[in-house]
């Protein structure tokens, strides 16, 4: 294993460098030598190094200063750095840690201690490198999955019978468990929004299964029959510790909105200058059969009305003061966005991110807006 690792020795005393080089090469390590921080800097830029043996007392730039400099560079934040110092053991350890070192070796050093510590730090570095490689691989796979999910849940904007439908999907991770879609058949507009508990690949896969079930439904089914079928089929495959909240709505040509809200944040209706939350609540979908009774709600919309649905990643977005937007806050944000005019969903998203400030939203966000 030693032959695969390169150690950089930095010391202004040639005799010390030669001794360390001899000890390291005899153990099978590849040793590189530098007699100042400047020489070491040039080697690090051009050559991969697995560990750094760094003298403290050097002219121009001492070892502590050089170590602090390296720790400000992303590439060297995890590079194992061992100080070689004649300081007292307790003082040496404290100074090594304070200045970004991983360990220290007293002068005159003990060969066995030196070799053991180098083996220890390069073993840790190997594990860190493996984790970084796996992380990079995982991120590449997530990026691919994200592209697939964009095809499964594309953002939409279209006009149906003079009604404007628009969706927005903003996952917290590369991929997420929210789902939103709108589509029209010959007689009605379908509006569906759902939120699977959890984040990342597992939630995204459940979201994909939800869409498969959704688009395998017969066009002749009523809203109640569709929700019953979705619930039954998803409860079969849904793990017990997962759940799905949803809202499924029909809008017919007479502007009558029929919906079932399964544990989801209440749909918001803007009409005649004010926003209200629509009533009605049915059970969410869970990994157990609860013999749920889904209640169908109906509301007639007027010209100029707007319907807004969102997942709880929006209402539970938190700012730097640990305050949530809340459902009441979302009602206010939506009302303000409508009053401002323009791209309602874009304005809503901007207001949410402005509320969060430097605090990154902690959950996926999906939204849909229907404008009569």
From TrEMBL:
Residues 6-122 form the Response regulatory domain. GO terms for molecular function: phosphatase activity. Transmembrane segments: none annotated. SUPFAM superfamilies: CheY-like, PP2C-like. Keywords: Coiled coil, Hydrolase, Phosphoprotein. One of its GO terms (biological process) is phosphorelay signal transduction system. InterPro entries: Bact_Sigma-Reg, CheY-like_superfamily, PPM-type-like_dom_sf, PPM-type_phosphatase-like_dom, Sig_transdc_resp-reg_receiver. Residues 121-148 form a coiled coil. It comes from the Bacteria. Pfam families: Response_reg (PF00072), SpoIIE (PF07228). The modification 4-aspartylphosphate is found at residue 55. The keyword Hydrolase applies. PANTHER family: STAGE II SPORULATION PROTEIN E (PTHR43156:SF2), STAGE II SPORULATION PROTEIN E-RELATED (PTHR43156). This is Fused response regulator/phosphatase. It comes from Leptospira ilyithenensis. The lineage of its organism: Bacteria, Pseudomonadati, Spirochaetota, Spirochaetia, Leptospirales.
